[in-house]
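Weekend entry, working from home. Most of the wet-lab plans are on hold until the incubator is repaired, so I used the time to fold the two sequences that have been sitting in the queue since the last round of cloning. Logging both here for the record. First:
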Amino acid sequence: MHLPGERLCYNLSMLMIKFVPEQKMARFYEVHVQSTLLDSHAVVCTWGSIKNGYHRVRMIKTQSIDEAEKIAKRIIQKKTKKGYAEMGP
């Protein structure tokens, strides 16, 4: 949990979306690399529907930032191949 107004610091962060109107699909996928309290770093993935707000979260613990960034980049690459596009600023 973070304090109101506090900025979260991510080493690597990406929001991707996927729209397929003919299937009435509107999804998002977020990937973050962040430091943790007990482990070195973790990759945190959040995904779900843009329409109804339903989402899920997964955390992958790693021993180093290099390992976390490698995992995050691999996830981003897989999602891009499946039709997700990076959300602009």
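Second, folded right after the first finished:
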Amino acid sequence: MAARSERPHVLMMSEITADGKLTLKRGASSKILMKYMAPETEILLHETRAACDAIMVGANTIRIDNSFLTVRLVPGKSPLRVIPSSMAEIPPEANVLGKDAPTVIAVAEKAPGDRVEAIRAKGAGIIVAGKEHVDLPLLMHLLWRDHGVKRLMIEGGPTLNWHMLSHRLVDEIRLIHLPFIVGGADTPSLVGGMHIDTEDQMIRLALKRFYLCGSNLVTEYDVLYGEAGHGLP
């Protein structure tokens, strides 16, 4: 794994319901809930994008939400859009392949050549990071080294969030709390991944700030790794 000084500072930002869910149900777009954010919180989201060099979401989020991931509500430059997709499974009509902001798709060496070339034909860049799957620590280092990414924002789903946390690649978390309960045993929550076995494997957070943004509570945390023997191994 690249040294921490040789990767971007990573902020995970997400809206979540009072019961920690990202969407109404599995397969539903997060945009359904995001439309209930206060206008001030929408501005905060776009201000955060403008303050970052890159923004990353997973390929599944692109397939479901088809987001633009650009800065629109405030002045500022749209960040580099980064989409990890080991087998280059990005729909050719995806909005992130448009020309309104630069995009790179991170793929594995095993990605089919025709899919890679179809992405390049849309004007997006390709980063090869890993043999069979995208190696996220390597990807972070390549973004830092080759693309000048010093600050990266994740607006991902539970799978990407889990993998970034499990590789100790997230430095801080900012959550927008929505006053709803949606329930559902299989409704996606902030972090997916494997179940942990003991409390010693919990990822510890330090609350550093909380405030109202319009009508939404926002909480901000530092992520702690290996504090007093706690956190991921």
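Plan for Monday: verify the second prediction. The chain has one domain: 4-229.
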